[in-house]
Amino acid sequence: MAELLAFDNVSAGYGNSVVLEQISFRMQEGDSLAVLGRNGVGKTSLLITLMGLTRRHAGSILWRGRDISRMPTHQRAQSGLGWVPQERFIFPSLSVEEHLTAVARPGEWTVDKVYRLFPRLQERRGNMGNQLSGGEQQMLAIARALMVNPSLLLLDEPMEGLAPVIVQELTRAIRSLVEDRGLSVIVVEQHARLALSLTRRAMVLDRGRIVHESDSASLLADDDALRRLVAVA
Ligand SMILES: Nc1ncnc2c1ncn2[C@@H]1O[C@H](COP(=O)(O)OP(=O)(O)OP(=O)(O)O)[C@@H](O)[C@H]1O
C-alpha cells in the first residue's frame, strides 16, 4: 500500500510555546488511527498541525511523499485532507444542502451519497444550520468534509457532548467509512474504547509526546494499559 502521511520528528506549538515534541508516525492508504490521551496533551494540536494552523518549530510532514510543511491550510484541504474540527463551524444561515453543495468537489462523494450515509440530513435538507441539533450538526460537519472527497478524514472528538443514540448513529457511519469504504481516518476521541473499536492502530500522547503505539485491538483488550495511559475506568 502507498504511504499517505509521514510525520518526521515534528515539534510544533503556539508562538514560542512548544506543545508537540518530536512526533513521528506514518500512515498507509486505508489506515485508521485513534489518537488518545488525557485532556490537554496535544491531540487537537496534532490535527491542526497537520492542517498547518500551528507554528512548526522542527521536523517535516510528508503527504503522499511530498513535503507540505510550508503549504497553506486551504491547499492542504484541496490536496485531500478533510478536517472536521471540534467546533464544527456550521453556518447558522445556510441550509443543510447549501453547506454540502458549497464545498462539493468532483469525486466519489455526492449529495445523494452523503444522504445515504446520514438519512437524518436528507430529512433536514432545507433546515438552516441554527435549526439543527448538536448531533445533526456533527453529521453535517462530517458530510461536508466528505463532499470535498478527501483521502484522509480528520475527526476531532466527533462524539463530544452527544446523546447515546446519536453516538450510535455516528459510530455506524464512521465504521462504514473505515471498514466498507476503506477511507483513511485519524480519530481524536475522549471515548477511548469507542475510538479503538473503530480503528486499526492507536497512538497515545502525553504532554505532547507519543507514549504508546500499538494496534487498537490489543490496547482495547488491555485494561491496565488503558487505565494507565488514558485514565479509562
Ligand atoms: N491556541 C492556543 N494557544 C496557546 N496554547 C494552546 C492553544 N490551543 C491549545 N493550547 C495548549 O496546547 C496544549 C495542548 O492542547 P490541545 O487542545 O492540543 O490538547 P488536547 O489533547 O486536544 O486536549 P482536549 O482533550 O482538552 O481537547 C494545552 O496545554 C493547551 O493549553
From TrEMBL:
Keywords recorded for this protein, A-Z: Amino-acid transport, ATP-binding, Cell membrane, Membrane, Nucleotide-binding, Transport
Domain ABC transporter per the UniProt entry, residue ranges = 5-232
Q: Which domain of life is it from?
A: Bacteria
Q: Cite the GO molecular-function annotations of the record.
A: ATP binding
- Quote the SUPFAM superfamilies the UniProt record gives: P-loop containing nucleoside triphosphate hydrolases (SSF52540)
Q: Name the protein family.
A: Belongs to the ABC transporter superfamily.
PANTHER family, per the entry: ABC TRANSPORTER ATP-BINDING PROTEIN (PTHR43820:SF2), HIGH-AFFINITY BRANCHED-CHAIN AMINO ACID TRANSPORT ATP-BINDING PROTEIN LIVF (PTHR43820)
Put simply, this protein is called ABC transporter ATP-binding protein
Species: Noviherbaspirillum aridicola
Q: What is the lineage of its organism?
A: Bacteria, Pseudomonadati, Pseudomonadota, Betaproteobacteria, Burkholderiales
